[in-house]
Amino acid sequence: MDVSILIVTYNAANFIGTCLRSIYSHNIGLRFEVIVVDNASKDGSPQFIRRHFQQVKLIENAKNLGFAKAANIAYEKSRSEFCLFMNPDIIIQPGSIRNLWEYLLDHHDVAIVFPKLYNIDGSLQYSCRTFYTIPIVLLRRTSLGKLFPNSKIVRDHLMMNWDHNTPRAIDWALGASMMVRKSAVGNAKPFDERFFLYFEDVDLCYRMKMAGWSVMYNPEAEMIHHHVRHSAGKGLHRAKIQHLKSWIQFMFKHTWR
Questions:
Q1: Which CATH superfamily is domain 3-254 in?
Q2: Taking burial as the number of CB atoms within 10 A of a residue's CB, which of 108, 201, 227, 247 is the most buried?
Q3: How far apart are CA 242 and CA 196, in angstroms?
Q4: What is the pLDDT of residues 134-182, one digit of tens each?
Q5: Whole-angstrom Cα distance, residue 212 to residue 186?
Q6: Where does residue 110 rank: exposed (0-12), middle (13-18), buried (19+ CB within 10 A)?
């Protein structure tokens, strides 16, 4: 098995069909498996997968375990050295999976490689990021951001002053799609299950970099990402509270010790 494609779903019926078709409709040129772990969806997602994609290995959780725990379940069932974690709102472009796979084969110091992401309208998605700081969180997750809409701090965090057309080392990127080298993770689980949602991707990248591995962005691999940002929007709603909670967990784990 060359690549294991691992997807966590939760009420993703609007996206999962397009995502899986984008995988199976292309000649990837690799031996691959697709494992989907469903977190007790109530919108018919697992039934749809069973009906239309019988080649997928589907694991159904009795309750919503959160992304990290569900992704770890898929990881434990995977049979490849290279695991491509994907959100169900990703649309694979031709050659992208092979490009990520070849990049890890050619760069033995790289633990994680991220693709270039586009928004559904074809515009570039600023998916690469620097690690969070307190000013970044205040400007991105509170009303202070409205006072400084063109803040250099935010633009630097989103790496907006770069054309995104050349490979480069990064701190982390949106975990909507990332290929991970198992031997870099070692005997540990890739995701810290104390993060129910958000920051599990930041945490993994941080741990890999602290262990001496590289985290890279490879623009030759291209994918489309719907990027449904539940943590955005007005007010202090549930998703935003969860995002702030996960950030505090991350800071206590790695900084405020």
A1: Spore Coat Polysaccharide Biosynthesis Protein SpsA; Chain A (3.90.550.10)
A2: 201
A3: 8
A4: 899 888 877 777 778 889 999 999 999 999 999 999 999 999 999 999 9
A5: 13
A6: buried
